[in-house]
Design a protein that fits this description.
By secondary structure, the chain is mainly alpha-helical. It folds into two domains: about 140 residues, no CATH class; about 300 residues, no CATH class. About 65% of the residues lie in helices and about 5% in strands. It has 19 helices and three strands. α13 packs antiparallel against α14. InterPro entries: ThrE-like_N, ThrE_2, ThrE_Dicarb/AminoAcid_Exp. This is Threonine/serine exporter family protein.
Amino acid sequence: MREYIGRALGWLNPVRLIEDRPATIDTIEPGSIMVSPRRPIDRFDVAAITEVLDLATKIGAVLLDSGTAAIDTQQQIAFVCGVYGLEDVDVDVTYNTIVVSARRGATLPPITTMEQVYYRSMDFTRLAQIDRLVRRIRDMAITPSSAHRMVDEIITAPHPYPHRVATAAWGLMAAGVSVLLGGAELGALLAFVTTVVIVVVNRRLNRIGTPVFFQQLVGGFIAVVPAAAAFGIVQNLNLSIDLMPSFVIAAGIVVLLSGLSLVGSVQDAITGAPITGVARFFELLLMTGGLIGGVGIAISLLEHAGIYLPTITPQTTFPAVELPVRILAGAVAAFAFALASYAEKRALPVAFMGGAIGAAVVASASFVAALGDVLANGVAAALVGLVGGLLARRALTPPLVVAIAGITPLLPGLAVYRALYGLLGDQTLDGITWMMNALGIGAALAAGVTLGEFIARSLRRPQMPVRPAWMGMLRRNRLQGYRRR
């Protein structure tokens, strides 16, 4: 771990951040590489064309499944087809369907393949391996059959960490978010235990095929009950223990919201795929509705049982001495989220620094009266997208990993809970205000990280075509053959 942290600190050198070490998606920009370096496939060779199209759709399915934006997925699919000699292709990426069609001239019908994405998973190692496979296809002249075998191995490979490690990481993330919001040690411990229970229960529900909406409903219910029960015990026994159940509940809400593709939905809408963006955003709203329903049911049942949660007061500033603790808590939460999402070891210190940057900006904004929550979170997300994107390129890690991990601790879990508390407590105006605040924060996070990632991509974009390494080897071998003759 020391080695990774030391290496990550070395990447902070501003000269090294902008040197020419482009990410795979950067080299796919039009004109940035030599397109179709191989001989074009014969338009009458249906088997060869179908093999390449099927490979490209498989790669695109993994990218879309991991939360990659529709436009980036479309560009990488077209790139893989172009490398293998198929330049005249049409790629259509929607919410859960990928259609790739290769034109063969005016006299022959096009060849079309389609792939459907039935689920969404958070396996960042799989995403990084697909990213490296695209690099190898570009640089090492891998045959389509070999690439097919590699993709199948990536898809069927087990997770790099056991489930118990991922479960503990989810609990650690909730504890970090609780401290970031202002909770004490007992609240962090309670958030850890509650989140572990939520993850275990939802994993069992997922195995029996329970729809995600009801998984969110059950998760929201579990997020409230332990915190409310512990608060009731503390109040009845008149114990002098600092326990704010709102921070524990908000931490559970953040964990349940973290798996939803907020970044991808807004990024699709911004970058030119509004239909896919609307579909993803509607899924986000539906899953959030299930979460809110679970929280609301739990609060109503607890009130009937005589347990009343404390009134949520407006957020106040905290002493400056707590700033380092909150920054560290945000960094730990981002690190834990990356670990829970099965990120590679090289990505963990980069995610840690991304979370620290976002938490530092948002925590420091509380000392600036003119900077509201929405603007502060937008600025923090932009910095995470910029600096995290540059660091991700140094670590040869997909920038999406750092972007999602960096902004996850900043998700508006507390604002969502305040909105629901107001709506259930006959404070309709306050509830609607906090709900709009939560939506504004979510949109600012997604838009900010998209802007930061765009700037990072512009800084690291290569200025001249890159010749694949295998082409240089072929040329050297040819020259050596001529010399022997």
